[in-house]
Amino acid sequence: AIGFDLYCRLLQQAVQELREDSGEPMMAIHRAQYKVALNNAALGFGPSIDLPISAYLPADLIADSALRLRFYRRMARIDTAQDVDDLAHELEDRFGKLPESVSDLLYLLRVRALATDAGVESVNADSEEIAIALPMPVLPEAAASLAALAQGLRARGTRVWVKLQGDWRKTLLMVLRRIGELAPVAQGARR
User: Fold this and answer.
1) Exposure string (b/e) for 77-113, b if CB count within 10 Å is 16 or more?
2) What are phi and psi for residue 129, nearest 5 degrees?
3) How far apart are CA 111 and CA 106, in angstroms?
4) Which helix (H) or strand (E) segment is 159 a member of?
5) Predicted local confidence at residue 190, as pLDDT
């Protein structure tokens, strides 16, 4: 018996080989896969984010629970890095210097926005590294481009790994932006 993930990868590989044999351009296939990933995000199936960060709006910052809930609802609807910046400015204007838990929450929102834009399926950390799951395999040229971004960064198959060392938060944002840039003909896929 094989696992579901392996079955899906084998099936994807077989379909890719059949399409290569039929002469259909691979870039068209990659654009279609990327569109599916973006459509999943648009339907609310955004990426799963699990990072070692304690992120919340503390009651001592926003005492009114109804107001705190309104901010959480707004955060759930945020889908761009610019929206995160706008919310950060608003929170600073209303409440002054933000505590670490709020800065961490804004960071997670930024990660989610960039991951969604890049078509990423999940961003999950264990004790040593962060695994970024992609909807399709990383092409060799893209893997080399990603690996050049930071020491210890690896890309293979449908995964990119970032070490939890040094300024890993900055590195993760940089990697997500680069994945978004490398997405197969991103401009054509988003039309």
Assistant:
1) ebbebebbeebbeebeeeeeebeeebebbbbbbbbbb
2) -155, 165
3) 9
4) strand 159-163
5) 37
Name residues whose C-beta falls within 8 Å of residue 84's C-beta, 6 or more positions apart in sequence. 78, 106, 109, 110, 113
Q: Classify each residue of 8-17 as buried b or exposed e, where b means 16 or more C-beta atoms within 10 Å of its C-beta.
A: eeeebeeebe
Closest CA to 123 of 90, 56, 168: 168
Output the pLDDT for position 185.
36
The amino acid that residue 112 corresponds to is R
Quote the CA–CA distance of 68 and 159 in Å, as a whole number: 36
The residue with tokens 């590195």 is: 171
Contact 66, 51 (CB under 8 A): no
| Count of CA atoms in the C-beta half-sphere (13 A) of 56 | 5
User: How confident is the model at residue 119, as a pLDDT?
Assistant: 86
Tokens of 146: 């990603």
pTM for the structure as a whole: 0.74
DSSP bridge partners of 161: 131, 154
- Token pair for 139: 């092409």
Mean pLDDT per segment of 10 residues, for the chain of length 191 residues? 61 65 56 56 70 92 90 88 95 95 95 91 93 88 89 91 93 94 51 35
3-state secondary structure of 53: coil
The answer to whether 119 and 134 are in contact (CB under 8 A) is yes
